[in-house]
Amino acid sequence: MAAKAYLSLNARPRAIVQVMDQMVADVRRARRQWSGLFLLLPVLGIIGFLFLMIDQATPYTGGGFACMGFLFWAGGAALLVWLLVRRVSLPKEQLGVAREVLFTLRDDVSRRGRVTGWLDLTGPRQHSKLARTGRTRSGRTKYYYRDPWFQVKIKLADGNLLRLTLIERIKVKKGYVADRRHQLKARLVVNPSLYGIGPGKRPPGLQIQDHILTLQVQQSQPFSAREVLSLLKGMYSHLRTQPGRELPAEPPA
Question: Above 50 in pLDDT, residue 96?
């Protein structure tokens, strides 16, 4: 089953990345333990079969060996159920995207700056994430879930303020996911003492008002880290450094 991981973020990027790496290491360790216990299943099955064979070969045991064999099989079945329930994994794609974005932006955060927000890997199909309900043509209920699974606010070294949210939207009807959409929202509050807004064609989804850039993009496939970083870079391409001003040189966070 997927691990119910939720991280409340309020630290420097490097520290958050270290926590993410530790999460992955813990899951790998648990999976190795799970694999070792899984090897016991055929052993229990063979032992149970041997006891049944002994019971057949010695008819005057009163079925004691057969009972022992069935007990080993029952123990194997219980162990199998326990292992299936305890098997854990992390949503690799989502965790990988969040890690890569924060790792790439680590040197763009001011020395005293922190990344605040959350990384929610608990999944979208929860009552707290139910946006609305509707009816199908047959009268069945359909459910619309909205899951902002990654949201961060970052004070950058150049004085800009970046807000980034990755959202997964799903529509569920008849118990299965009928539609899935992925949305990116970004908001960049520009430091006016350092930047101005330059001319240029605005891509779809980008709005500029005063010194605030807002971007909304939606697609059917999950956003990769490269796509997220490329969209953020595209927002920055509309900024122009004010004459006579230079970017601040700060040590990495």
Answer: yes
Distance CA 96, CA 93 (A): 5
The CB density around residue 35, as the number of other CB atoms within 10 Å, is 11
Question: Which residues have C-beta within 8 Å of that of residue 189, sequence separation ≥ 6?
Answer: 160, 161, 162, 211, 212
pTM confidence score: 0.76
What is the CA 179 to chain-centroid distance, rounded? 19
- Written as six digits, the tokens of 203 are 């891509």
Contact 243, 196 (CB under 8 A): no
Helix axis angle, 13-38 relative to 40-57, nearest 10°? 10
Between 35 and 58, whose confidence is greater? 58
**Start-to-end C-alpha separation, the chain:** 35
Q: How confident is the model at residue 1 (pLDDT cuts 50, 70, 90)?
A: very low
Would you list the domain boundaries of the chain? Answer: 5-13+92-241, 39-86
180: nearest Cα among 132, 144, 224: 144
Is 229 a residue whose pLDDT tops 80?
yes
